[in-house]
Amino acid sequence: MKKFLSFLIACIMVFSAVGIVAAEDGEPDPEPEFVRPVEIEAVDENGDPIDGVELQLKDADGNVMETWTANGERTLLLPEGDYTLEGLSAPEGYAVDSATAITVARLAEEKGTFYGYWAKNYHENICQNHNHVGLETFWIEDENHNKTTAYCFNHGYANPSGVEYTAYTATKDDLFLYARNKNGDISSDELYRHVMYILLEGKTVLANSDFGIAEDDELLKDYLIYMAIKHYTDPKLFPDGVLQAIINHARREKMEFPENYIKAFNALINPNCELPKYDDCILYFYYPKEYKIETHSYQILISAKKVPHQEVKVAVHPAERFRITLKWKDQENKDGLRPTPEELIPMLRLYLDRTDVTEQYIGGVTVIDNGNSTYTVKFGNLPKMNKTFSLRIDAIKGYEQNVKSVKDGGTLTLAHMKQLKTVPLDPAPIKPITPPWGKKDK
Length: 442
Known about the structure:
Helix content is 20%, strand content 33%. By secondary structure, the chain is of the alpha+beta class.
C-alpha cells in the first residue's frame, strides 16, 4: 500500500506540472434560487399515513400553487417564503385540519456568500512537500471546527493551504464558466449533473465490494473522486483522458494501476442511471478571501450537500357527521321570505356545549334544499369528543322557530308568522240621530 501511495503522489506531481489553459473572463452569476424539499404527508392521530385527503397549497398572496389528493408522502421544492396548506376534504369518518402554515427559510450556511472557512490539506502526512498539495483534497473548516471535504478543479493553478476562504453557493452556470479546462462539447447541465453525482454519490458508489476498496481507505476513495471530477472539469489537460494518464504513468514506474480501481473510476464517470437535476442540492465554491474568484489566480475548491428536507404533517382525526333537518311552514315560500341555502349559512351558529365554535368549523358546512320545503344542514369536519354539538339559527325575518337549538339528527321548524289584518272604516260622515222624545212640536 505504501508503494501505491507513493505512486499516487507521483501522479499528482506529474499532473501539477501540466500547463495552464487561458482563463475565460466572467463574473459569478447572481445567487442561485434556493429551494427546499418540503415533504408533505397526511397522518392520523397515531402518526400513520392516511390516503384520500385532498390538499391545496397557496402562496403568501393566496394564489393556488397545487391541489392534489394525498397518496403517501409528496415532496415539493419550495423557494423561500410563507405558504398555507389547506385541507379541503378527508375520507368518510375523518376530518382534516383546515389550514397549516409553512415557512421556508435558509440556514446561515445556505446563504449566498459567507466567510470564516479555512482550507487545510489533510494529506500533508503523505506529501510533505508543501509546494504540492498531496491529493489536492482539503478540509474546509468553519469557525466551529466543523469539517467538510472539498476537492479542487482548474488543474495547474495554485491552491494555498491555511488561509481564510470565502464560500459561495454556486449555480451550474458558475461551474460551467469557471471550469477552464472543460471540453467544448459538454453542456452546462451535463457538467453540473456529473460533478454533483461524483460529489454526492461517489463514496456510495465506491462502497461496492466488486471494487475491493477497504471501507476505511478514505485516501483512495478521495483520490478516485478527485480524479473523476477532473475527468469533467479538466479534460483538456489530458489528451488521452485522466484515467489513461494515470495508467501510462504507472507503467512508466513499472507499476500497474489495479483493474478493480479502473472499474471503480469508470463507475464514477459513467453512472448506469439517469442523473437527477439536483435541484434540492447546493454546490459550494471556496476561494481565498483576499482574492476575487474572477481573477483566476487559484484553483477552486468545491463541495456539495443535499438541502435538509422540511417535514410537514397534516393532522387528520376521526370526525363526527352532524346533520339536522330544517322544516319550513310557509306555504312553499308563498311570500318569498325564505332564505336560500347560501343565504342561510351566515345565520348558522354551531355550539360545543355552551361554546360558540362556528368560526372554527363553518368551512365544513353544507346546506341542501331537498325540494319539499325542507333543508338539510350538515357539518362534516367535527372532531369526536366527549361533548355535545348543537345548532342554533339567527332570527329570520317573518319566521318563528319552534325550538331554540337542535342536536344531531333533530328537526327545527320555521313557521311563517301570519300578519294581522285590519278592516278599514267607512270614510263617509256619520249623521247624528235624534231620539223621539227629544222632538218638539212646531
